[in-house]
Design brief:
Blueprint lengths: L29 E2 L4 E3 L19 E5 L2 E5 L5 H14 L4 E5 L11 H7 L4 E4 L1 H22 L14 E2 L5 E4 L2 E8 L7 E6 L4 E5 L15 H14 L3 E4 L7 H23 L4 H11 L9 H18 L1
Protein name: Putative hydrolase
GO molecular function: hydrolase activity
GO biological process, one term: antibiotic catabolic process
Length: 312
């Protein structure tokens, strides 16, 4: 979804307060590693049907506590995540990483702090600035609008600790290495490598079998970060949306982007416009037509690729 010009006048919360029973329906966690769990949310955009929940919250249990990655899209989603964390350990959440500014990944921070108010929340410096400057308010309103008020009561609990490219956080005997960028999916992106576990949490720089919404990012930036994710050579990749897997899921995204950019370049050189390109590219890339968000995002990706070619 697109971060439209952000209006500082938007309120940071809606009028209705969420009650103790307002919790997204249960989505069970999957144990994907010895100490790592992921809730694979349904793919799609926030809606009444999915109650705004559509990302992949994850957590790592360490000897000192729990580290959460992206606790979801609302206080209601975050409470569901908290309940699932508590099923896996009695240890407290000590740290939360937010991979980028898009609210479906971080507005669940509120639920974490309801239970563990001393938890440290970490994010990209530009994500923190953007959230303070209006992105938090924008996403709260957008989630409420798209769920017809289900997420009302959510507050923007913004990260307080910055994470920069190459920085390492030593938490509970594990090394959380930051791979950050300002040119990819949202221009505020973190990928988080758990070095000892050879696991990479990609945020939305990598999705599993989903055509990415790039309205806030750059085509070439995401292609670069896809290659960077492969270069990490992790054993396990946890995408922002879609199923967790090995490097094959990243290679699939790379193959898709490479094929799409090659076709756009070829047709651009032939003088084709974006609307002329779309059916030709859709036919050429029909192997990907069953990916989530194909219909919604293929056209905008073509337009963005043309724009970046022209900027060359």
């Amino acid at each position: 979804m697109r971060l439209l010009p952000l209006l500082a006048t938007l309120a940071f919360c809606t009028s209705a307060a969420a009650g103790p029973k307002d919790v997204v329906r249960t989505h069970p966690a999957q144990k994907v590693g010895a100490e790592t769990y992921v809730i694979h949310g349904p793919q799609g955009v926030p809606s009444v049907e999915n109650q705004s929940f559509m990302n992949n919250p994850a957590w790592i249990v360490t000897p000192d506590g729990v580290v959460v990655i992206d606790p979801g899209s609302s206080v209601q989603a975050g409470r569901m995540v908290v309940a699932q964390v508590r099923k896996t350990t009695k240890k407290p959440v000590t740290h939360v990483f937010n991979t980028h500014v898009h609210g479906d990944h971080w507005l669940g921070n509120q639920a974490i702090l309801e239970v563990w108010p001393k938890a440290t929340i970490i994010g990209h410096p530009d994500m923190i600035k953007g959230a303070r400057d209006g992105a938090g308010a924008f996403w709260i309103k957008l989630m409420s609008d798209m769920t017809k008020g289900y997420t009302d009561g959510t507050r923007a609990e913004i990260p307080t600790v910055e994470a920069r490219d190459g920085q390492e956080f030593k938490i509970g005997g594990k090394t959380f290495r930051i791979h950050s960028s300002t040119h990819a999916h949202s221009k505020t992106d973190l990928m988080i490598e758990v070095v000892e576990d050879r696991t990479l949490f990609t945020g939305d720089n990598v999705l599993s079998r989903q055509v990415m919404n790039l309205r806030d990012g750059t085509f070439k930036g995401v292609m670069k970060e896809t290659e960077r994710a492969l270069a990490v050579d992790a054993k396990l990749y946890v995408p922002g949306h879609g199923k967790t897997g090995d490097r094959k899921l990243v290679e699939e995204q790379k193959a898709y982007f490479d094929a799409l950019m090659a076709e756009v370049r070829r047709l651009y050189d032939e003088g084709k416009s974006d609307f002329e390109m779309k059916p030709l590219i859709a036919e050429k890339l029909k192997a990907y037509k069953n990916w989530a968000e194909w219909d919604a995002n293929l056209g905008p990706q073509i337009s963005l690729a043309i724009l970046e070619i022209e900027q060359e």
